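Hey, I'm writing a tutorial for new members on how sequence and structure tokens pair up, and I'd like a real worked example in the thread rather than a made-up one. If someone can provide the structure for the chain below, I'll link this post from the tutorial.
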Amino acid sequence: MDLSSMDIVYPYLPWNDNGIELKYSLRSLQNIPHRNVILIGTPPQRLNTKEVRVINFLDDPNHSKYRNVTDKRIIISNDESISDDYIRMNDDMFIMKPITNIPYYTKCSLREHLNLIAEKFGGVSRYYKVIERVYKVFPNGMSFEVHCPMVFNKAKSKKLLDDFWPLELAFRSMYCNLFWVEWTPFINDSGSIDCKSYNGRLQEIDNLNNLTYLSTYDELKYEYKKRLDSKLWTKSIYEL
């Protein structure tokens, strides 16, 4: 897996923080070889658009977040300038240590994931429904909804989108089960099956030095700021 030949793509939805999470995520790219950085959405003011290619996209407030993200995926899959294999990042994903490979991480089976969601949010939540749709196609499949970077192929993504449009799906899990991948169980240092950290659900992670990946919830982004400042203090070329 030659990461240095791959573009990193951020499907981005602006928040009222002027891109604080995105700032740290971009700084964390020092830990991963890559080609270009591309953001699809409305860029925050702090973004250096001379170094980051921006594909302007305005999220439709009448659509769900899953539909808006799907529309962004369609644009990515049809953009010839983006590398055939690309690295998908979110602004709340941080790579905390140097990496040279991105495994396809799984958290558990789809059935187990549905049970976890039902225990926390009930079986009528939208998130439950998008996982359930994948489970109905792959009843013995695995859930790949881990908040880490993932490598996608544009042609495979386009086929998935063409075949299942306009269903709202857990795209990572659908992709990895449809196009079989060699998967790796994800267990972080706190014993969690994901690197998403938030109060009341997963154990808070205090020592960032032990982590390869970190992902935070929006309500915690300011609580993490001091710790992220100490770890990701070097300004990147991607920010103003």
